[in-house]
Amino acid sequence: MKVLLTGEIQVGKTTIINRLLEELQLTPSGFRTLRQIIAGKQVGFVMKDLTGIVPADCHPLYIAKGGAQGYWEPVIDTFEDWGVKILQESLASPKDLILMDELGHFESTAFTFQQKVQECLSSPIPVLGVIKQRSTPFLDHIRSRDDVHIITITRNNRNEQYAKIKAYLQANYKRTDLRQ
């Protein structure tokens, strides 16, 4: 069971994931991407570890920082170091599923990380996540996989899609307590 949500920014993809995790009482390993705000200004994006391997006192795991011309500059080392470690730990974790929120273009040249994402998608462990709509070789390869269900979320369909995804998870997830 591999389900990745896609759609425009701020349509509710992560909100759907949060509701699913809460209502189905699922504990994920993996990572989340969060905006890094300092003094009220967004200065980048960070990777939040859900496995517990990153020390609490570790500096923020920036995956992109504000560039000089107003563009986000990818921080490839974060993907290639901590990102790979987080996904490796997720493959060995007893948690319910691997969360990858989100897969995007910042990791376009993080080839070891990309291989680890593919390994997670090829594993028997359920994967839930978000994939950017942008076209890159990495993201397009994920979209081309027969074993990955890509679901487009819009403001108009998000409630309906939530219900469908929840029913799909209940029907296809291996834990018997989800079939209630």
CATH homologous superfamily (4th level) name:
P-loop containing nucleotide triphosphate hydrolases
Q: What is the CATH architecture assignment?
A: 3-Layer(aba) Sandwich
Indicate how many domains the architecture comprises.
1
> How many strand elements?
8
Q: Poorly predicted ranges (pLDDT <50, ≥5 residues)?
A: 176-180
The outline comes out as globular
Class by SSE composition: alpha/beta
CATH class placement: Alpha Beta
How much strand? Answer: 25-35%
Strand order of the largest sheet: 5-4-3-2-6-7-1-8
Provide the succession of SSEs: EHEEEEHEHEHEH
Rounded to the nearest angstrom, the radius of gyration is: 16 Å
CATH topology: Rossmann fold
Number of helices: 5
Report on the architecture of this protein.
The protein is α/β, with parallel strands linked by helices. It has one domain: Rossmann fold (3-Layer(aba) Sandwich). It has five helices and eight strands; from the N terminus they run βαββββαβαβαβα. The protein has helices at residues 13-23, 76-92, 111-122, 137-144, 158-172, and strands at residues 2-6, 28-38, 41-49, 62-66, 72-74, 97-103, 127-131, 149-152. Strands 5-4-3-2-6-7-1-8 form an eight-stranded mixed sheet, with helices on both faces. α2 (76-92) runs parallel beside α3. The protein is globular.
Summarize the helices and strands and which ones pair or pack.
Layout: E1 2-6, H1 13-23, E2 28-38, E3 41-49, E4 62-66, E5 72-74, H2 76-92, E6 97-103, H3 111-122, E7 127-131, H4 137-144, E8 149-152, H5 158-172
Parallel strand pairs: 1-7, 1-8, 2-6, 6-7
Antiparallel strand pairs: 2-3, 3-4, 4-5
